[in-house]
Write a structure and sequence with these properties.
Blueprint lengths: L13 E8 L10 H18 L2 E7 L3 E8 L6 H12 L12 H8 L3 H20 L11 E5 L3 H12 L1 H4 L14 H4 L18 H16 L6 H4 L7 H9 L3 H4 L3 E3 L1 H11 L10 E4 L2 E4 L9
Amino acid sequence: MSRIARIKPTGDRQTYFAMNTTVRELPLFQDEKTRSWIYDEILAFASIYCIELHALSILENRYLMVLTAPCDSLSKNEVKRRFEQAQQRYRHPKRWGDWFMDEWGKRLNDLSGFMRDVSLSVGRYINKRDQVKGRIWGDRFKSTLLDQGVALLMCMTHVAMSPMHDDAERSVVDYPCSFVGRMRHALSTGIAIPALGGLPGSSEDRLTWFRQFAEHLQTGPTDLDDLQTAFPYLEPKLFHEWVTKRQDWIYRSLVLGSESYCSEMIDRHKLQSPGLNRPYSLGNGLFNAHIRAGKSRR
């Protein structure tokens, strides 16, 4: 079948899980210096694109993030400022002209533009480091459209726990190239934690809570009392398995969220074939719209 078009609803701020993996999953980012550089580069492009990051981890062969893409109407001066910031990071910078206003006004609100700039910048860095030429990414980036609530919580937790997916002995809170680990090393996380389930305090307070939550999860199923008031369907053992071991529930989904949210996206974007036009229940109060796996069109 033909390649599925990217799902990018217009008119509202949208939250996504996004990731990119190296060609043949080669471990091109094995050294910590490279992973830290990639983390900082993503933060730099996020500030240019007005992207709000909720979770970010850099592993040996991929990066994963949860982010909210903007839908802001920027002034001409603001577009020009961000354009010039971006040009400083390009190999062949251009000078501003009024004809860039429409193009960049749209581009700065586009998830694909952000991911493209990040991937190109990382690719150039790796090729220069290794003194080679060629592509380093296996395919186009993958993205999953997220509802607020349990879908956002589980995807953020999945990104936080991702360092232990490749190495079960690795401490997620000590890993310096993820948003929870950078706190231990007194580095900027660049992360804004939303008020999940009504968690109190500022974004920094919620980030501290999230770090402690991830530390408890690494030792096994943990107490979810703080969250089960807002998310009564969470099952501690199933939740722990999903965020620490299983990955297909997120990587193969086009949309994750409540049943009503997934139904709306299925109808709006005609995601599934006749007879498969209802969301699929995953458990933990989560549904998805999926073509990449399960009861889906192949």
